[in-house]
Amino acid sequence: xxxxxxxxxxxxxxxxxxxxxxxxxxxxxxxxxxxxxxxxxxxxxxxxxxxxxxxxxxxxxxxxxxxxxxxxxxxxxxxxxxxxxxxxxxxxxxxxxxxxxxxxxxxxxxxxxxxxxxxxxxxxxxxxxxxxxxxxxxxxxxxxxxxxxxxxxxxxxxxxxxxxx
Length: 165
Known about the structure:
CATH architecture: Up-down Bundle
Order of helices and strands: HHEEHHH
Number of domains: 1
Strand content: under 5%
Number of helices: 5
């Protein structure tokens, strides 16, 4: 039986959440669409960080189990875990600016530019799933949809090319 890597799980989850988000958005179901756009981007970013940076899910202790959350290894002190958006967005930007990403060509630069220039998920929260959705508006959902399309496109191109080219 073939083992699926964590980055493959995140890649699959990104596509699944994005597909659901588009369906829900097209049906006018903004709160749930908004939430799925966030999860799609979060998963795509985690997939990219696991593939192209020093972010890992390797066991923290030798011989231990893989972690459930990706983290940035530290030489000393506690590991820095990659959480939900908007922190994952910031973490991705930090990891990229830390020169640990193999950026080459227009796609790598495009991802870096998206992460640096905009923050459509700055007000998105995983905890909004417990709210009634009345604060979600069309403009925010549309901006998040557009950002998710760009990031998932860059993610797909990286999977095809094997690098962020």
